[in-house]
Design a protein that fits this description.
By secondary structure, the chain is mainly alpha-helical. It has helices at about 1-15, 25-35, 35-55, 55-125. The protein starts with a helix and ends in a 6-residue tail after the last helix.
């Protein structure tokens, strides 16, 4: 139980020690594998990368993911704008077609009414037309 409390406490106190432990990775590689060339290459590559980019590898990976996340958010915004524009255009088109159809139906109703009137006149006065 004491070991668990010690490890949890250690994690709490050492949580912000990432930058000061830059040599831990190569040190562990050296201690674990015993290969000094691999350890020195790993440390040297990390330092060169940091000098070139101004960031550690962890910071760079975080930066790249954040940039990709920004790009995806912008693409989603553009997609939503296009969808909204499409819906507005579709609504306008449907409403204009509906109005045209209403006008056509009104005209058809007027023509039918006039046709009925004419038919009644003709059936009531068959002698006048002959």
């Amino acid at each position: 139980m004491k070991k668990i409390i010690f490890f949890v406490g250690s994690l709490f106190f050492l949580n912000s020690c990432l930058q000061s432990t830059a040599m831990v990775g190569p040190s562990l590689t050296l201690a674990g594998g015993g290969n000094i060339y691999q350890s020195s290459f790993s440390y040297g590559a990390s330092k060169i990368f940091e000098e070139e980019t101004g960031m550690s590898t962890t910071e760079y990976v975080t930066f790249v993911f954040e940039e990709e996340n920004k790009i995806l958010k912008e693409e989603n915004k553009l997609k939503k704008i296009r969808e909204k524009k499409f819906q507005e255009d579709l609504y306008t088109l449907v409403m204009s077609n509906l109005e045209k159809t209403k006008k056509q139906n009104e005209l058809i109703s007027i023509v039918k009414f006039n046709l009925e009137k004419t038919r009644k006149k003709l059936t009531n006065n068959p002698n006048k037309n002959q």
